[in-house]
Design goal:
It contains 15 helices and 22 strands. It is α/β, with parallel strands linked by helices. Strand 8, helix 6 and strand 9 form a beta-alpha-beta unit. The termini are far apart. The structure holds adenosine-5'-diphosphate. The site of adenosine-5'-diphosphate has 17 residues, from helix 7 and helix 8.
Length: 499
Amino acid sequence: MATKSNGSLPPFKIPEIEFTKLFINGEFVDAVSGKTFETIDPRNGEVVAKVAEGDKEDVDLAVKAAREAFDHGPWPRMSGHARGRLMIKYAELVEEHAEILAALDTLDAGKLFSMGKTMDIPSGASNLRYYAGAADKIHGETLKMSRELHGYTLREPIGVVGHIIPWNFPTAMYFMKVGPSLAAGCTMVVKPAEQTPLSALYYAHLSKLAGIPDGVINVVTGFGPTAGAAIASHMDIDKVSFTGSTEVGRLIMQAAAMSNLKQVSLELGGKSPVIIFDDADVDVAANLALLGIVYNKGEICVSGSRVFVQEGIHDAVVLKLAEKAKNWVVGDPFDDNSQQGPQVDKKQFEKILSYIEQGKREGANLLCGGSRHGDKGYFIQPTIFTEVQDDMVIAKEEIFGPVMSLMKFKTIEEAIERANSTKYGLAAGIVTKNIDIANTVSRSLRAGVVWINCYFAFDVDCPYGGYKMSGFGRDLGMEALYKYTNVKSVVTPLYNSPW
Ligand code: ADP
């Protein structure tokens, strides 16, 4: 495998970490307990910064600020146009600070710095602009009532929102949640993942510079079972929007049900199929399949972790995949030549390696990879298992790392049946030149997004979310905007009607 040394010189000077405290009501403050926790650089296991460890009392303060800003502050009362203008200013500031923000995500999550600078951060700004443009177009409908009544609906902001976000895309997740809820006129408490708190704190700082009023965006850094759980069970939060594991999604829903029945949307795990048909171009198919599993080191809930290849093209695809995986460059995420950085932390690193060992024990054929890369940090080789059986653990459970399970199939019907036989339903990929196959299979797959001859084709206008145990509710697109609103019906009798 071609590799770059993990110790190669970063092309960008690693920044001083400026913001490490909670952001509540427009101010950076220590946690009430005074406690902090360490965030770790996954390139080498060293401490990057000590960050305030928020808990229930801090969440209470943040919710109080958000509630005050919602009930009495200007944000929900401003015109959508005025909110949109401030959001555009926010987007400009995000773009201006792209380098430092990308560096923070690299230090926290091991994400490729080049990708952060050119994709994650600019697309965060695009997300803000998209929803800024939508902020003055949120309206209800005039109803065609069946009696002598005049009726219409209003779409109102849902209130105070709790956003609990994961560590794999700290920037994209922040804006996927914050963008539409800001546009809708909500106020919010954001809890970034404990592994990746730094960029969210920087985004909080930029929101203040942009002129977003105090109390609208609050950021509480801390752990899931403490700060996260306090959000899920808070009596004064109107909605919780969560992205993370299916196990924690279940806890969030339970806490919402047992507290104030707040609305919930969940974007959870996946075990997404990529189906390659006999007529596909071998090179295109191998590229898509490899990208589907190594992009962001496999730390993406829509990763194409189950690859089904039709028997006629199977051997050619396997050969090509092996060749491409060998040339995949694992290395320092600050180095522009690297294509894959380290896994986010020791826990994920060990979990992925134990799945790899399980695959070996279960008798799958290890085509390439199969162990850590280097001897420092949490780097893992792109790993491909072939001859995988549907009932093997590696084919069923979400590994959340660069580990592919490749399987052979004969007929279209068989591919659909096997692709759907999972508890998850987040994404799917199809590789074929045959339009009839593409249309038939895409309709038959139970997944929130189907990519035909592409993969990870995200767009801010394209709703994103799951079927089955991958959750419910949609991020992105206008769908996301609507989930942060409530619909109110207003009815009045027409003149001379009998009331
Ligand atoms: P992963 O397993 O991929 O680390 P998690 O689902 O554990 O993902 O974490 C996603 C987010 O959920 C993080 O911000 C984490 O702190 C939070 N979280 C974890 N446990 C809980 C919990 N019991 N209640 C609320 N939030 C939680």
